[in-house]
Every structure is written in C-alpha cells, then in structure tokens.
Structure prediction request, 623 residues.
Amino acid sequence: MKKSNSPSKIKRLLEEHGNEIHSEFFEYPEKPAKRTIDEYGDRTWTGYGDVSMSAYDAAWLAMIPNKAYKESAVAEEFSLAFPKCFEWLISCQDEFGGWCNIRGAGAIIPVLAGLLALCQFRTRSGAFFEQKLSEIGITIKQFYDVINKATEFARVTLNEWNVDDIDFVGLEIIIPYHLNALKKSYPAIEFEFPEKQKLLKENKRKLSLIPLETIFKMAKMRQPITIIHSIEAFSDVIDFSRIQNEGFQALNGSYGSSPAATAAVLIHAKRWDDKAYSFLEKILQVPGTRFGCVPTISDLGTFETAWILHPIGDLILKLMKKNITDQELFSKNIAFTQYFQALHKFQEGKIRWVSWDNRIPADADNTVVTKWIIRQFDSKSEFNLDVLMKIFYNNEYKYFVSFPGERTFSCSCNSQVLVLLLLEFEIAKLQGNPSVTIPVMTKTGLTQQVKLKQVILNVVKFLMAQRTKNFVWLDKWNKSPSYTTFKVINVLLSLISHPELLEELNLTVNELKEFCRKSIDWALNTQHEDLSWGEPSSISQGNIEETSYVIRLLKTGIMNWPEDINIHNSLQKGQSYLMSHLDEAMCDPKFFHDKQPFLWISKQLYTVPRIIKAAMLVAAYEE
Prediction:
C-alpha cells in the first residue's frame, strides 16, 4: 500500500480551516469567537465553511421579484431580483427531471420548490410572460419543456415515496406547503399519491404543536427559536411583517441561516427587506455548480470546526498514548481548543452549529463535541453537566435530543453525548467521586438529583435498542448507516474499560463483544469489489465518506479482535482504496461536490467536504 502522507495533509487542512475562520486565528484563537454574539456588532460577516450548493434554496431565490414589482404588483414592472437562479433552473435540470441528479425521496423537496418558482414566474409576468422570458434569454418552449418534465418526475417520485424513508428537516411542514402552493398556482399543479393523507395528517398534528403566538413572544424576548430556519413553510399562515425585526433576523440580514427562509421574507413580507437582500447578494458570490448556485446553509460554522477536530483530536490522543509527538499538529489542535473555550464562554455553555446567529438554538451535538475536545486537551478545564441535562435530556424516554423540543431522536447525537458522559464519569472516579449526581427535570417540572452513572446506563440501553435487524444504526442527520454505526460501536466497546457499568447492564465483556461483532461482520460483508463501501459515486462502486467511516469502525474492531485476519485484510484494502483517491480528493475543490454522493440531511441532502476530508485523513493514517 502507498505510504500515507496524511499527517502533513491534516496540518494543511487545519491551517486552511483556521485561516478561513479568522486571518489571525492561530495567533488569537479567542478573537473570532466574539463574532458569535450580537454584542460584537458584526453586520457584514456571513460565516465560514465549505458546503454544497442547494437546488431547493436556489429555487426560492428564483421566486424573489424585484423591488419595483413588489411595491406595485404591476406585471409590466415584473423582473427577478436574482435572475441567475431562475436561469439555473432552466439550464441545469437533470436527466430525471429534477435538479439533484438523484431519484427518490431526496429529490422531492427540491423539485417541488423548482416547480413553484417556475409557476410563480408565469403568474407574476401575466400578459407579459413571453416578453419577460425573452429578457432573460429563455423561450416559451424551454420553459414548458422544463416544467412538464419536472411535473412528471415529481408525480412518479411522490407515488413511489414512503414518508418514513428519510426524516428531512421540517418535511411534514415544507412538502405540504409546496403542494398547496402549487395547487393554487398558474398553471395549477396538483399531486395525488399513496402517502399523501398520512403526510397531511402529520402536517396537521405538527402545526397544532407549534404555538405561533408563543414563538413571537419568545423572539421579542430574544430567545432562540428553531422554526426560523424553515420559516418559508409558514408563508401561508404567518404575517411576515411580524418577523422583520431583530428577534428573528440576524445582524447580517439572514433569517435562520437559511437562504430559502431569507428569500421567503423578501417574497411574502409587505415591506421590502434591504438587509435580507444584501445578505443574499453576498452569498451568491460563491461559484455555482450543477447542484445549484446558492449554498445549502449560509454558514456551517461551529459544526464544521467541531466535526473536523473531533476525529483529529481522537487521533492525537492515540498518538500521545504511543508517545508520538508532532508539535505542529498538537499546537494547531490547542488553538482550536482555545477557540472552543471562548465559544463556551460567549455562548454560556450552549453551542449552536451556526457561527454567528444568536437566534438559532443551541444543539447537543456541538455542545458535547466541543466540550469533549476541551476536556481532553485542557486538564484545568471544568464542565457543569447541569446545562446539558436541563436543555437536552428527555427524562421520559431516557435519551438526549439534538435541539429543545425535537420531535425525533438522533442515535449519532446520543452516542456523542455518551462519549462525553463517560469521560466525565472517568474524571469523577479519578477524583474519588464515582457517585456524582446531576439534576434531571421531571414531568412536573421539578428537578431531582440522579446519579451520572444512571443517565449513562439509560443512554446505553437506548442506543442498544435502536440497532436495526441488519445490525446497523440509522440517523436523522446522515443517511449512511456506516456513519452512525461506527460512532455507536466505538462508544459501546469503550464500556469494556468500565466493568461496573457492564455489571449494572447485566452484560459480560464477551456478551458485549458478541453484540458489537455483528456490526463488524456487517462491515466485512458489505465491502465492494473495488475495496470501497457505501453508495455508488462517479469514481467507484462506493464512496470516500462511507469508506472512511467503515475503516474507523474496523480500526476499533482490530483493537478488540487483534488476531482476526479478516478485519486486518478488509481494513488494509479499504485504506488502499482511500490512498488511491487521496490526492484528488484533497486537491480538487469540486471533488466532493461533483463526484461523491450527498449524505448529510437537512431540508435536502448536502455534503460537507472539509468534514469528510478530516474523516478520510484520519482513516488513512497509519497508526
């Protein structure tokens, strides 16, 4: 196998990422953390991060009329605020009829939004339809060819759809909104499909649980609210003039760190929003791809940083245990640790994924991953579990939610919480306090003290119960079973070093290993002939991202079954596959955008190249 040069590439990745966060990041890592609070007053920063383009968000920007038409509603004055996005819809329709280059559930939300953008143009241009098309270089035939192809693709896809396939963010609100808007549009488009009544029933249930007036009160008091990220789906039930204030809008003009949500305000609010328009102008400066000309989200922020540093931090811990020193790598890691410490200081221990918008609620994932890094690399740090328990622990079902009030759970999130809880338990034992207690909220709203050990046991039982019949775990944030499975197996097998926990679980070491071994065997049995794993990509039978996750799973496997030749062989082959594509993946800026599947789940599927690069480099590292 070609010798890995991933150490130098890891340092280069950290250098590139730190410099994008702030030009003086490695000299003053605490400085950019100030930008994450309104008090800093930065009205121009749109954050950082490498994320794929979004057909869904491009479609919403393609719906925005110019300011003159918005004020007059006169068809003759109609033009588009962002004609580039509409032209992209016409010129970049894929072979299937959508705009994502995929079939199935992942294409539904983008194709419905694209259809709505086309219909909105037809409606607003009125008698000047042909003229307005001509002004942007589009013929009537082109227009109707695109709309007819998209309609048929949407019809076929909806008929084949199982509502429970993938839990896209807000799908039970977003899809019904688009279906209703299309039904009222010109030309009117109505879809009937087997799962429609089930979807509409869930839509009605979800809307009944959203107290809109309470949300307005929360925003007035400047409390974070999740709904703002998908506010476009409420265009028919909310007076958007009520959200044109700093309770909803970030200092830089964005709503919910979402181009689609921001576009919806420009479309549906009575008053033109200059700050929102300026924000969208800024984010359109990035080069477009065949997947869109608008970023999926306008800032990856802390999420990107934490998910880069998490695997790299894990690798550094392993190097330190082997007394291997890489001073340059370690010093860069410390700079990011200091950045996370400053984030916890300014965000009061509740970290959100977006770097700059105080209106986005904190999430458990980013809170625990950043704190795990701090606790591992700053021996003097402290951590109060009270905040984590109060905001994210569901005491009724004994698991952690990603966001307050979340409808469903995430296995990957709970595995990461468990990693931090086990670290805190270990620290408590070293300090002579194994019976440490933490506050838990009861159904009645009262607080009771519960042993940390009991919460750990609850989460372990919850995770073990979520394994599928194929011996893998699935998740709401990433559609790959390998992503969540490697995380869960890693933390479960770490319980071997906590015999007192295994005893409470009525598990022997052999029983735990037997439980986990089934997932290792799943990995061994699903490797492709070309040595990769996962969904197909344009370069191989599998893809880089899922192959990286499985390799990390097999590395854990070797630690627990060191004599197993099958694990060794499969791991070596997988690393050979990664090494054969390493240079292209690291050097081609469009590699993950154009040649790899999108596996991360939001309103639509997206990809995060730097996060995948970090996973790949750690997987390729020859420890």
Notes: The longest strand covers residues 437-441. The domain at 55-295 is CATH 1.50.10.160 (Glycosyltransferase). Residues 495 and 502 are 7 Å apart (CA to CA). The beta strands are 393-394, 399-400, 437-441, 447-451, 600-601, 605-606.
